[in-house]
Specification:
316 residues, alpha/beta, 6-stranded mixed beta sheet, 4-stranded antiparallel beta sheet, globular, disordered C terminus
Length: 316
């Protein structure tokens, strides 16, 4: 048995887990979580995220592998010892809120503290503080059935944060929330974790949620995989338009240069003809150069004219 690194509050090696029907959930997953770190476990549904969190927290011991918490082996603990560890040092947020229907909102949020032996008044103060941070303090005396699904999830998050756990396991904590509420709840959760030094292991399939973590571990079919994050590229329209614009401009400049070149070349040929002796052109002596418009005749016409001149000479 090899001891984990000293700076890892949680450490797991080669975890294997199978469901009751024999289907594999984890196939040799290893990872380490440092103290105060927010780690996101990402992956599609059915990739093993929830099972990994349950194994790390001791809720479902792995069939093979090791789990360590603060250099103490969790995988060798007895069930009662693991239960005490979860009660005193761990916090848990389910994707679906599970509240005690007989208790009101603040009593549900203060329940973990009172189970630890904290006095009722002190537990209530801590619970109300977190309920206010999560914008649910005005419902503190309501029962769970009087709340919406999103409000009940906020109470569950306050209940998990009130005891200030060493490690908080959050399994899709914002699943019941509307998109507009997710950012606020996640910001409160991550800010509280960093200000209180709480280590968070967050399971999510949402890239926006995973982006708030310090580090991301990806799972696929029960195995840890490496993902490649590519930089964002500009929109295809902007990339396509710019070269086309440049090409059109270049073509326009090229046409203008060709036209100028053609004019210059025609002028040069015209000037050359004017400087030659009149006899070289096959015309009677004393006849002036051809008009400027005729200088731009195609090359084929020029050859035909010379041939005609030669034929006239032979006939004479």
């Amino acid at each position: 048995m090899v001891a984990p690194p000293d700076n890892d509050v949680l450490w797991a090696r080669a975890l294997h887990f199978q469901h009751s029907d024999g289907s594999p959930a984890l196939l040799g997953v290893s990872l380490g979580v440092q103290e105060g770190e927010i780690l996101a476990v990402s992956g599609p549904r059915g990739s093993g995220k929830t099972t990994l969190l349950r194994c790390l927290s001791g809720l479902a011991p792995a069939q093979r592998g090791e789990v360590w918490f603060n250099s103490v082996p969790v995988h060798t603990m007895r069930p009662l010892t693991r239960e005490r560890l979860r009660r005193d040092r761990f916090g848990w947020i389910d994707p679906a809120p599970a509240l005690v229907p007989e208790l009101n909102v603040w009593e549900n949020a203060a329940l973990p503290l009172m189970l630890r032996g904290t006095g009722r008044r002190r537990a209530k103060t801590a619970a109300l503080e977190w309920l206010e941070r999560l914008d649910i303090g005005d419902r503190s005396r309501h029962r769970p059935h009087e709340l919406t699904q999103a409000e009940r999830q906020r109470v569950s998050i306050a209940r998990a944060l009130a005891p200030a756990p060493t490690v908080l396991f959050a399994d899709e904590p914002t699943a019941p929330l509307h998109r507009a509420d997710r950012a606020h709840v996640l910001r409160t959760l991550t800010t509280a974790a960093r200000s209180h030094g709480i280590t968070v292991v967050l399971a999510t399939h949402d890239p926006e949620t995973a982006a708030l973590a310090d580090r991301t571990v990806s799972l696929l079919d029960g195995r840890r995989v490496n993902t490649l994050h590519l930089p964002a590229f500009p929109a295809p329209e902007s990339r396509a338009t710019e070269p086309q614009t440049r090409t059109a401009a270049s073509r326009g400049r090229g046409r203008r240069q060709d036209d100028r070149g053609t004019e210059t070349e025609g002028q040069a040929r015209a000037a050359g003809r004017g400087a030659e002796p009149d006899s070289a052109n096959g015309r009677p002596e004393g006849q002036g150069p051809e008009p400027e418009g005729q200088a731009a005749k195609p090359a084929g016409q020029g050859v035909e004219t010379e041939g005609q001149g030669a034929a006239c000479s032979l006939s004479v």
